[in-house]
Amino acid sequence: MEICRTVARLKDAVASRRGMGTVGFVPTMGALHAGHASLVERCRAENVTVVVSVFVNPTQFNDKNDLKNYPRTEEADIALLESAGCDIVFIPSVDEVYPEPDTRQFDFGAIGAVMEGAHRPGHFNGVAQVVSRLFSFVEPDKAYFGEKDFQQIAIIKSMCRQISSPVEIVECPIKREKDGLAMSSRNTLLDAERREAAPVIHMTLAASVARREWADVEETKKWVKEQIDSNELMKVEYYDIVDAVTMQSIDSWDHDGAVYGCIAVQVGSVRLIDNIRYK
Ligand code: AMP
User: Which residue among 25, 36, 74 is best mutated to probe the pocket of ligand 1, counting the most ligand atoms within 8 A of its Cβ?
Assistant: First the structure.
């Protein structure tokens, strides 16, 4: 596995392999876990060259403390990537990715105005900035994203349409801990008591799917929030049940098309997100 810390070195490494076949790319912020590994393994199975980036992107953090406290585990990340079959890992400095400030403002319309977009101002603009830059460095055929960040996938697809990027976006299922908690780099920041309580998020979402038989959409949203908020260690920031393409709230289970429930929960100082498919 080649470790590249500059854009020039990365471009050389990818160029020397491009003729061999398709290039797959997995962007990450490091502190890698089995969820990330599942993306890398899928990428490995579907491409000749596997490129992974490990970069904590400052422009997508709307909270300075969150950026400061974000876990960084470079040595372990390199070991995990090596064993997951990565060919090229890109670990740049901030100056390497942003030699000048990125002043681009993306407009995602309604997709970007709700849920994470409403609660983390500027977050998706920063995601689009970094992913578009990484795409221009790597020029992958396919890029792999986790459904854990459900709304982010819609944002990335919109960004690709806006900049006419030919990259194929591949969606990968959520990897969970044995107790159901969605794997996240932020889970390591939970203290023991909060880590023990956190699986209630997925348990509640999973239980709410059956309630759809007798409860309407509004009642289901209310029930999920009440269940989770009844635990004194947690506070639901939002829970919405949305169309899987437009990200807009639905008001009836008769809605045409796939429907997901998306949640953000503050667990002490740690903010966790998760989602579930209803239909
Ligand atoms: P991050 O390092 O958190 O920015 O995540 C990098 C990529 O890994 C994103 O596409 C995430 O959606 C994906 N990812 C993070 N956690 C999981 C998980 N538990 N299961 C599947 N994909 C994940």
Answer: 36
Ligand 1, atom 10, lies closest to the CA of 145
Q: Residue 258 and residue 141: Cα distance in Å, rounded?
A: 27
36 is catalytic: yes
Put simply, whether the predicted model's pTM sits higher than 0.85 gets the answer yes
Contact 268, 191 (CB under 8 A): yes
Place of tokens 């969150």: 66
Beta pairing, strands 49-54 & 23-28 = parallel
Q: What is the residue-level pLDDT of the chain in tens, covering all 279 positions? A: 999 999 999 999 999 999 999 999 999 999 999 999 999 999 999 999 999 999 999 999 999 999 999 999 999 999 999 999 999 999 999 999 999 999 999 999 999 999 999 999 999 999 999 999 999 999 999 999 999 999 999 999 999 999 999 999 999 999 999 999 999 999 999 999 999 999 999 999 999 999 999 999 999 999 999 999 999 999 999 999 999 999 999 999 999 999 999 999 999 999 999 999 999
Note whether 269 and 235 are within 8 A (CB): no
Q: How many CB atoms within 10 Å of residue 98?
A: 16
Query: Counting atoms of ligand 1 from 1, which one is nearest the CA of 152?
Result: 12
On whether the CB atoms of residues 80 and 37 are closer than 8 A, the answer is yes
CA–CA dist 243, 247 (Å, integer): 5
Name the burial class of residue 59, with classes exposed (0-12), middle (13-18) and buried (19+) by CB atoms within 10 angstroms of its CB: buried
